[in-house]
Each structure stands twice: as structure tokens, then as C-alpha cells.
Amino acid sequence: MSTGDSASVPAHAKARPGRDDSPDRLYTVTGGRSRTHSDAFDLVTLVVAESAPTPGMQSEHVAILRMCDYPVAVVEIAAELGLPVSITRILLADLLDTGRISARHPRPAPESAALPEPELLEQVLVGLRNL
């Protein structure tokens, strides 16, 4: 077998998409922290940048600020960074503590908001099919 043959590499040694197999990198990214002190972030919390990146900032913080010109969900930020959500939450807490981002949960629909009648939806569907 040649050394360049991917079949010769054990399955557990192959890189997993979206994951960094090096715990050292994750330790470095978070400064050794494994948890955030804030409960401000869940998967659907929307994050918006309140300031531009500044020289000397950690590259992950810069990336977050650049992608959050408009509201972005925590899960989307984690996916874009290729980091676990738990690590992303720690980075977001850093930015929130310094006032560089704001975070809010999506607003649920008011209970008084009524869904359209099924007959109306059927008429719209028929109209769309006729286009």
C-alpha cells in the first residue's frame, strides 16, 4: 500500500468535517475555559455586532463580529466557525461582556395571532397553481 492511499488510514484517524480533533486548539481558543458564566446563549439566540473588530483581537472574535452585521443564530455562528456550540458560547460571552455584541431570543408569535382559515389557504394554493 502506498502512504498516500486514504484506504490505509484508519477510520478513527480521518478528520471529521466541522470538528478539530485537537483539544489543545480548543483549550487555546477559550483560554482554558470549558464553560461560560452566562446563560444568555442557546442555539437560537440571535447575535448582532455592536462594534467593528479592533487590531489585536482574537481571530475567532473578529470572525464573529464580521459575520454578525445582521442577526445571526448561535448555531449558525458555530457552524461557520467550525467549532462546537459550547466553545462558540464561550467566545460569544467574551464579546457580550465587553459590549461588542448584543444578544436576544427570537420573539414568539403573540398568542392573539390567529392562523388563517384552512379555506383561505386552499384558495391561495389554487390561485398559485393557476399562475
Radius of gyration: 22 Å
Q: How widely separated are the two ends?
A: 60 Å
In terms of DSSP E residues, the strand content is 5-15%
The neighbouring-strand order within the major sheet is 2-1-3
Oligomeric state of the chains in view: single chain
What is the global morphology? Answer: elongated
H/E topology pattern: HEHEHHEH
Q: What low-confidence regions span 5 or more consecutive residues with pLDDT below 50?
A: 9-18
How many strands, what sense, and barrel or not for the largest sheet? Answer: 3 strands, antiparallel
Helical residue percent band: 25-40%
Q: Which class of secondary structure composition applies to the elements? A: mainly alpha
Give the overall average pLDDT. 79
Number of helices: 5
Please count the beta strands (DSSP E, at least 2 residues each): 3
Structural write-up:
This protein has about 130 residues and is mainly α. It contains five helices and three strands. The protein has a three-stranded antiparallel sheet with strand order 2-1-3. Helix 3 packs across helix 4. The longest helix is centred in the last third of the chain and has 13 residues. About 10% of the residues have low confidence.
